[in-house]
Amino acid sequence: AILVLFVYFVCLFGGLGHNFAHPLPRWRYTLMHGAYRFGCRAMLFVVGFYRVQLHDIRGEPYETMPRIVVANHISLWDVFYLAYAFDVVAASKKESFSYPIFGRILKSLQFIEVDRHTSHGRRKAMQEIERYGRDPRLPRVLIFPEGTTHVE
Q1: Which helix (H) or strand (E) holds 93?
Q2: What span, in angstroms and rounded, lies between the C-alpha atoms of 110 and 25?
């Protein structure tokens, strides 16, 4: 809970007065995503992932790595690990953005909101993913193909 509150307050401070439809200025991005990655790594540590080794098998510098990361969603810890390793934000269901603290963190970090209940919402999410993939000023995007796109 303390880690979530830490990230929340950093995002709250870092996001003051910013229109999140636009890319974050470098200082905001560094501040908020640094806290986000620290929080993700700390969460992994708390649950027992003490040593997390990162291997980039291609040997590419971070700046040239792909803008869109696609992965299997096996557990809750996937998100924390991939966020820590690749500094990504995820495409997340619209309902997640309505949670009081968690929703503010998602908005501040520029997660992509997916309205799964309408075709317009799904199409808008696809356009946002495309925009994030093209614009290097926006964060990299994490997509879990197993995510639902239909009403349950």
Answers
A1: strand 88-93
A2: 12
pLDDT digits (tens, 9 = 90+) for 45-94: 999 988 877 666 566 666 677 889 888 888 888 888 888 888 899 988 89
CB-based contact 87:35 (threshold 8 Å): no
CB < 8 Å & 24+ apart, contacts of 133-137: 133/67, 133/68, 134/67, 135/23, 136/63, 136/67, 137/23, 137/24
Structural tokens at position 44: 């992994």
Q: Enumerate residues 6+ apart whose C-beta is below 8 A from 139.
A: 29, 33, 87, 88, 89, 109, 110, 132
- Single pTM value for the model: 0.82
Q: Other C-beta atoms within 10 Å of 37: how many?
A: 18
